[in-house]
Design a protein that fits this description.
Elements: H1 2-8, H2 10-29, H3 35-68, H4 85-139, H5 143-168, E1 178-182, H6 183-193, H7 195-201, E2 204-209, E3 213-217, H8 218-234, E4 240-248, E5 251-258, H9 291-299, E6 305-311, E7 315-321
Parallel strand pairs: 2-4
Antiparallel strand pairs: 1-3, 4-5, 5-7, 6-7
Length: 334
């Protein structure tokens, strides 16, 4: 800040130094003027000027120091009161811009809330004809057509479910209900929902649940597992998907292993990025690049750590590591 102040006042300093140099020059060329007396006077003036500069630095920079340390949280009360007309102009400008930003942010927030509410209402409305469609498909007797329609229905259902959770995920902390959850019924339900797709692709499941329960939120854990299972089914053909749970130290781990196409090593660091699909199968129009991104985002407030190991062309293993009980103390009282 001192450097900035000196740069700002460099014209004043230059004018003062020029004036002192001029006085010394006149005393030097004019024998009638005592050079020693003038030199002493210049010394006193410089000393006084330095003290004056220091005083002005303390006074004039207090306001701007508060601006520099301002956290940009739109709270203008954190800024020091202006003491000069120019500081008052700056303060009024900042206050005006801040108020404008607050109003703009409020309008955008309201618009986003309305958009979210409308979209969620639309999704819930669409679920009614989807349910009716599912009942109609179940009554069909032609197996080939029934299988194809069931698959397309499932795709629509999963996309709507993903969209619904995407809109809710911003407020996930308000929606958590952490409790001990039995893994078997939760996993079996998710597999049952994918049954028609799995039959169509010839995919089975090998389930070994040594650890029977985990501490989490049932709805959001089901969503995370759903994303991992749909990925495993999507990229596998005529194979088994292994689902295992076990204890590792004090923590419970759940693994979902498929024998699908695997992930290219250069893609592994990016698979949880929003919108990322693949660099090897970039033409894949069915992939949205949102499933794993949302799974990772939902896992964070649940303190679930997701690891991935993959061998390109051989398969992928996703591992969910669940927190121990006391790790949830800062999230919710269990």
């Amino acid at each position: 800040m001192i450097k900035a102040f000196l740069i700002e006042r460099r014209s004043w300093i230059a004018a003062f130094l020029f004036q002192q140099a001029l006085m010394l020059f006149i005393a030097f060329v004019d024998p009638s003027i005592s050079f020693g007396n003038v030199l002493y006077m210049v010394y006193l003036c410089i000393l006084f000027f330095i003290i004056f500069l220091w005083f002005r630095y303390r006074k004039e920079t207090a306001f701007y120091k508060s601006l520099k340390t301002w956290e940009n949280n739109l709270d203008v009360t954190a800024i020091n009161e202006p003491e000069t007309p120019f500081e008052a102009m700056v303060e009024r400008s900042i206050a005006g811009q801040t108020e404008h930003l607050k109003q703009t942010a409020a309008r955008h927030r309201l618009a986003l809330e309305n958009e979210k509410d409308e979209l969620m209402a639309w999704i819930h409305e669409v679920k009614t004809p989807l349910t009716a469609m599912h009942l109609i498909i179940d009554r069909m007797e032609e197996k080939a057509l029934k299988s194809q329609l069931s698959y397309e229905w499932l795709r629509i259902h999963l996309l709507l479910d993903q969209q619904l959770h995407q809109k809710r995920i911003s407020f996930i902390e308000n929606d958590l209900s952490v409790e001990f959850i039995q893994l078997q019924p939760l996993i079996f339900k998710e597999i049952k929902d994918l049954q028609s797709w799995c039959i169509q692709k010839g995919i089975g499941f090998d389930i070994q649940l040594e650890a029977k329960e985990v501490l989490s939120d049932a709805k959001w854990l089901a969503f995370i597992i759903r994303q991992l299972l749909t990925n495993a089914v999507k990229y596998s053909e005529a194979s088994e998907i292994e689902i295992k749970s076990f204890q590792k130290g004090e923590q419970t781990q759940l693994q979902v292993k498929d024998c699908g196409r695997g992930i290219d090593p250069k893609d592994v660091p990016r698979i949880f990025d929003k919108g990322f699909t693949s660099t090897t199968d970039h033409h894949d129009q069915a992939s949205t690049g949102m499933g794993l991104y949302l799974a990772k985002k939902a896992a964070a407030p649940l303190l679930i750590h997701i690891d991935v190991e993959s061998e390109f062309g051989a398969g992928t293993v996703f591992t969910l590591t669940f927190p121990i009980r006391n790790q949830f103390e800062h999230v919710i009282s269990v």
